């Protein structure tokens, strides 16, 4: 799953509160979810030769298949990031991804940095953080302003 947030400006910034982190949309990797059923068996395969022959193993290439599904999802996420950044007029992107998705997402982000986007890559999976907790975490790391409570 991928969640997307924007910093929403406040109506009267001179009165105190700073922009607030707001959830705007989510993407779910339906292909991975659907393939979970196919790969429910933890063993990749084992069979016996006919007529009581020896046992042999076989490889179902599930790792390659799942990696391809992750790569496709990374492309969907990248397209959503571009669309959202263009819509919001943002040139700063903060990307936090799980270790499994980083290997697909990070190389795909390079063309954006060459197009003038400033990209901050976080090596921490914070997908389950609430918007408030996420805002606090990003502020603590100096990536956005701390939310001022009034």
Quick description:
The chain has four helices and six strands, in the order ββαββαβαβα. It has helices at residues 30-38, 62-88, 99-114, 131-140, and strands spanning 2-8, 20-27, 46-48, 55-57, 92-96, 118-122. The mean pLDDT is 82.
Structural description of this entry:
This protein has 150 residues and is α+β, with helices and mostly antiparallel strands. It has one domain (2-10, 17-38, 62-140): Nucleotidyltransferase, domain 5 (2-Layer Sandwich). The protein has 4 helices and 6 strands; from the N terminus they run ββαββαβαβα. The protein has helices spanning 30-38, 62-88, 99-114, 131-140; strands at residues 2-8, 20-27, 46-48, 55-57, 92-96, 118-122. Strands 1-2 form a two-stranded antiparallel ribbon. It has a two-stranded antiparallel ribbon with strand order 3-4. β3 and β4 form a beta hairpin. α2 packs across α3. The radius of gyration is 21 Å and the shape is elongated. The protein starts with a strand and ends in a 10-residue tail after the last helix. The mean pLDDT is 82.
């Amino acid at each position: 799953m991928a969640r997307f947030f924007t910093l929403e400006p406040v109506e009267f910034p001179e009165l105190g509160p700073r922009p607030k982190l707001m959830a705007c949309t989510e993407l779910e990797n339906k292909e991975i979810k659907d393939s979970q059923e196919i790969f429910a068996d933890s063993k990749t395969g084992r069979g016996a030769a006919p007529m009581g022959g020896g046992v042999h193993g076989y490889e179902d290439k599930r790792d390659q298949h799942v990696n391809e599904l992750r790569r496709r999802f990374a492309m969907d996420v990248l397209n959503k990031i571009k669309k959202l950044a263009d819509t919001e007029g943002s040139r700063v992107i903060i990307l936090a991804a799980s270790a499994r998705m980083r290997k697909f997402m990070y190389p795909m982000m390079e063309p954006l940095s060459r197009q003038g986007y400033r990209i901050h890559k976080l090596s921490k999976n914070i997908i389950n953080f609430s918007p408030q907790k996420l805002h606090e975490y990003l502020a603590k790391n100096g990536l956005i302003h701390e939310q001022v409570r009034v």
